[in-house]
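Hi R.,

Here's the chain you asked about this morning:
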Amino acid sequence: LMIVALDRENGRAGVISIPRDVFIEEIPNHQPNRINVIDYLGELDEPDGGGPTLLSDIIEQNMGIPIHHYLRFSFDSFREVVDALGGVPVDIDCAFQGYIEDEGGWLVLEPGLHRLTGNQAMIYVRDRQLTGGDLNRARRQQRFVWAVRNQVLDENLLTRVPALYTALSDSVDTDIGLVTALQFARLALALDPEDLHGMVVAPPDM
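And here is the predicted structure, written out as C-alpha cells:
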C-alpha cells in the first residue's frame, strides 16, 4: 500500500509505504484486522468502490492524510502493465534473489541495470522472504515506481499514455480520468531525484 503525495506548486512528490501487517483496531462494521484486508472488507459492504472508500476513511482517521484518488490493480494487471511497456529497466543497487513459485521460481539479479519482464518484476516487488523482509520489499516497490517514471522519460513514452490508459482500462481500477492522469504524468516527468521523498512506515514511528 502506497500513499503518493503530489505538491504541484513546489514540484515535489512524496511516497509513503505502509506495510500490509499494520493492525487497525477500529474498522466500521467489522472486527479489527490488518490494513491490507480493508479494501476487501469495503468491497464486501459495497461492491465496485466500497474498498477504496473504506480504506481512504481509515487512512484519514488514523494518519490525518486525506486521500483524493485511488489506483489499484491485480497481479495479472501489474504484469500486463509491465509487458505493455516492453519490460521496465530497473537499476539494481545491490544483489537480489527472490523466489515465488507461481511466478516461475527464482529471480537472481546482480547489481546493475536489468530490463524486467512482467513475471520478473512481480518477483522483484513481491518477495519478502529472501531479501530483507517487508520493509525492503516496500523500498523495492518505490524503486520500481521510479524506474517506470524514468522509462517514460527516457523512451519518450508520454505520447503513449492515452493508448496505454485505454488498453489497460479493464485491468486497472481507478477514479483518475485520462486528463488528470496526463497531468500527473507530466508532473512526475518534471521531478528531479532530489524532489522525490520516499518513506517506509515502520516501528517505532508507526
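One quick note: The chain is about 40% helix and 25% strand.

Cheers,
M.
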